[in-house]
């Protein structure tokens, strides 16, 4: 790629072995001949192309060696100085590695100064030969990091040789906050990354690693709930993204095990400013009856229970008998996301209806209603009945021409 011509001189360590010279200019033809004065071992001479002379610089060669061969087993020297001094700790037995080694390794791969929040040292022999180290940063992602599409933070190796610094297909996008390395002997060094992206091996490796990380985080939530609560407050958005973007229902349910929900007091607004707002997992409600206030009470049983006082259903549940979880409308959102798109004819009929009544709707009141709907959806209003009257008036005005 950078050489116009390459010369290789090699001689075996066996007594009386001759030396050989191998010459190639990059074409399909090469020359091999015996050579005199060749020392034991192998020497490679690279004649750089005129536009690649920067690789004759010591600093440039050092950067290349550090990036791609920093963890190879045999020593590499540049002008008498050894370049690869780091150990590939992911190839070692997890029992032989101390916490300080994991911290130093994390600082190296993540270019960070703090300690990792979680560290997973993972070794797998079947169905794939794989050794991995994954770290969760202790620093909360900024608003800029959340708003933009983060690249992969996992490097892919094969037998300690770097294949790609940011392997985008090794983990799903919702795990983009993970930092670490994956080393798999099953990946061939001769394959280009374009071919690897199409490989069934990469897809299988992604599924295995995703399940292992989910299991690890679930175990951590049981081991130290307080620490996991802080982690979820920082990275819970990524797990919700995983549920929305994952196609397989079984994987969705596995990711859902990582979610936490807020326990609610009699008034959520008062709970927000108190210590009673805590994070809970759904597994804490195993063998307990769960009812959905919105569907089971208001819709299904409305004909049987008229609610004479007209108060919201959630307020009618005895505080001693029930516990409210602020789960939002996740189920409704997932259901709606799987609906097919409306037909074009439905769009056109709606637009004709809208154009036929341009002066009927009171725009200022409509804007106020949209704002009030957003406030209710955010859970900032305890009793939404106060805004029903305005909504009914808007509907009456919209339907008057019909």
TrEMBL record:
The keyword Transmembrane does not apply. Signal peptide: none annotated. The keyword Ribonucleoprotein does not apply. It comes from the Eukaryota. Transmembrane segments: none annotated. One of its GO terms (molecular function) is ATP-dependent protein folding chaperone. It holds the Pfam family HSP90. InterPro entries: HATPase_C_sf, Hsp90_fam, Hsp90_N, Ribosomal_Su5_D2-typ_SF. Keywords: ATP-binding, Chaperone, Nucleotide-binding. Coiled coil: none annotated. Belongs to the heat shock protein 90 family. This is Uncharacterized protein.
